[in-house]
Amino acid sequence: MKLQGPWSDLHDDFLDEITKWLSAIDYLMFGCVCRSWRSYVEKYKKNFMKSQPPLIVFLSEDVERACYFYSIFNRRLYRAILPSLIGKSCSGITCGYLVLVDNEPREDSQFWLLNPFTRHELRFPCPANFIGRVILASLAMPLREFVLIAFCRYGPCLQYCRSTDTIWTICDSRGRLTGEPVPWIVDGAVFKGKIYVLTGYGEIGVLNLNPHPYVTMLKVKGIGQQFYCSWQLIRCNEQLIMMRETSYGKYQVYELNFLKMEWVKMQNFGDQALFFSNSKGSGFFNPTRWIGSQQPCNCIYCVECIRGQYILRFLDGRHPMSFPMMPTIMQGNHLSDASPFETHRYFPHVLQCGSSL
Q1: Single pTM value for the model
Q2: Alpha-carbon gap, residue 138 to 162, rounded angstroms
Q3: Structure confidence at residue 173 (pLDDT)
Q4: Sorting pLDDT into bands at 50, 70 and 90, what band is 115?
Q5: How many domains does the chain contain in total?
Q6: Beta bridge mates, 84
Q7: Cα(256)–Cα(263) distance, rounded to whole angstroms?
Q8: Does one domain contain both 46 and 169?
Q9: Is the dihedral of CA 178, 183, 186, 190 positive or negative?
Q10: Which one, 118, 192, 235, 336, has the greatest CB density within 10 A?
């Protein structure tokens, strides 16, 4: 059939036929071609991504301008060219942005948030205090703006910086934020338009930034008073999940029941699978939605970057199973000596492993 008019005028039915053959990376790049294709991708991206398995991002020390995306299920490797990363480290990923920082901080150092596909950038000044995890949120004010929220690794405080700010606002959670004694805030997540924060005791609250920062603690039946810094707060579709690894291969996973306002321990994941990361970025996904997939559900996927394999831990009592992760083709891309340090959810069906660049 002969094309009538420019490619940008293709009807959605034709674009459907094209995109059903694309991978997650190709789909995102497809949206960078022109304005009409970008509009199409944004319109259908949520459903498309649900049909795609997670990926892992490798950032190797000897790679200065590229990162690699790898699927553990079909063993395909993708490469994304980036601006110069010399002297930078990736401290994590939030909302599809690589969080890049200077290896040697300077007076003009910045938090550089970079989308590796659209090339969209956000830049924030570096905070004064050493941080652990960060989340990116969008505030609906008179004009929409971004805000980066950082959780301190070695103290009961959090920091935030709007895209229009020149300095960070530091909030000590020992009273200024909550009015309660030392609820050390360890993580947060944006869920249904609200910013939820989690304390090391499994307590949860809502962070309000306007006009002044304040956390409203919710009356939720807790899980005991033992303190852990390793709790993660995960937004997953219509669920808000709290989890941590208690010991090697053992996990505690709770879902917040908003009707009863209590944490409910999850004993069965049903048709979902948990992709676990020691750092921010674990997430639940439904493998039955992946096109052509026969991957196990009701289990936990854990990537062991050092051994180059991933492990399935089943909830029905079966013994764990290990599978090779790194294909031989990756040796030709200078990734055989890479030492990835953590995994993260991405776009959102991508996991990330990385090291200093």
Answers
A1: 0.81
A2: 9
A3: 59
A4: confident
A5: 2
A6: none
A7: 5
A8: no
A9: negative
A10: 235
Q: What is the pLDDT of residues 36-61, one digit of tens each?
A: 888 888 888 877 877 777 777 776 55
In the predicted model, is pLDDT for residue 1 greater than 70?
no
Query: Alpha helix locations (H) across the chain?
Result: 12-19, 24-30, 35-50
Check residue 5 and give left, alpha or beta (phi > 0: left; psi -120 to 50: alpha). left
Token pair of 268 as six digits = 């069965």
Dist. CA 272–CA 284, nearest whole Å:
6
Percent of the chain scoring above 90 in pLDDT = 5
**Residue 43 domain boundaries:** 10-50
Residue ranges in 84-163 assigned as alpha helix (H): none
**Is residue 272's pLDDT more than 50?**
yes
pLDDT at 222 over 80: no
The CATH number of the domain where 208 resides is what? 2.120.10.80
Residue 249 contacts residue 319 (beta carbons within 8 Å):
no
Question: Which residues contact residue 284 at a Cβ distance below 8 angstroms, ignoring those fewer than 6 apart?
Answer: 234, 236, 237, 239, 241, 269, 272, 273, 274, 275
Determine contact, residues 255/266, Cβ cutoff 8 Å.
Answer: yes
**DSSP characters over 240-270:** EEEEEEEETTEEEEEEEETTTTEEEE-S--T
Is 187 within a domain?
Answer: yes
**pLDDT score recorded for residue 357:** 35
* Distance from the first to the final alpha carbon of the chain: 48
Rounded mean pLDDT of 83-103?
80
Which tokens hold the place of 5?
Answer: 């008019």
Question: Per residue in 135-163, pLDDT tens?
Answer: 888 876 666 788 888 887 666 678 888 88
Domain limit, last residue, from 237, 267, 297: 267
| Amino acid identity for residue 292 in this structure | G
- CA dist list (Å): 334 to 36, 57, 286: 37, 14, 32
Nearest-angstrom CA–CA distance, 68 and 155: 34
Match 């050390």 to its residue by tokens: 184
Q: Is there a domain that residue 61 lies in? A: no
Domain boundary among 242, 267, 292: 267
